[in-house]
Amino acid sequence: MSIAVVSYSLTGNNERLASAVAEALSAEHIRIAEPKVRKMGAIILDMIFHRTPEVQPSPAVLEKYDSILLLGPVWMGQAASPLRAYLKHLKAAPQPFAFASVSGGALNANPKLMEDLEKRAGAKPMALIDLHIADLLPSDHKLTMKEISAYRLSSTEIAKLVGVIFDSVKGVLYR
Ligand SMILES: Cc1cc2nc3c(=O)[nH]c(=O)nc-3n(C[C@H](O)[C@H](O)[C@H](O)COP(=O)(O)O)c2cc1C
Which of 13, 74, 146, 151 to mutate to test the pocket of ligand 1 (most atoms within 8 A of CB)? Predict the structure, then answer.
């Protein structure tokens, strides 16, 4: 049974989480890279115009594995655009997959995320775990996007979130 954790991260939170999840699952960790440094303008254009950016490695790498855990941030309610080529590949060549993220969660609980994943991958993920930075911070004031964006998970938080993801995916990815 071979599992790949395929992750994208802009500011490091999902990268660190993915690395620890891959270790917990004894899975291979594949990091998605882009040829150019990503700027905020490119994020907004990708999300508005549904662009699928060029990424490395080729999404065909998924075919080497029995099941896939995609892991990356949520941007504007959707899976971050560098994950799209992999979701598209899953649509063309279906495989069991789950999706996990540590996102901001400042405005809402990303209610359209499942719909976005299903539309792009052609099937619902077997598990969807959207963890929120807002739930890790004191709730005595309204969080700003600036605070959320500047937040970097501590090792203790990573360990806690890894446990949540592991418990949610182990039953569906090991079959
Ligand atoms: C342009 C942009 C849009 C974002 N939109 C959302 C959103 O819709 N929902 C959410 O929960 N978090 C949102 N976030 C917050 C990120 O998901 C959060 O900061 C995440 O931990 C970043 O992951 P990374 O460090 O792996 O890049 C957004 C961040 C950016 C930069």
Answer: 74
In tens, the pLDDT along 102-129 reads: 999 988 899 999 999 999 999 999 999 9
Domain map (residue ranges) of the chain: 3-173
The CATH number corresponding to 3-173 among 3.40.50.360, 3.90.350.10, 2.60.120.280, 3.40.50.1110 equals 3.40.50.360
Strand partners, 75: 78
Q: What are phi and psi of 127, to 5 degrees?
A: -150, 145
- DSSP, collapsed to helix, strand or coil, labels residue 88 as helix
pLDDT tens digit sequence for 54-107: 999 999 999 999 999 999 999 999 999 999 999 999 999 999 999 999 999 988
pTM flag (> 0.90): yes
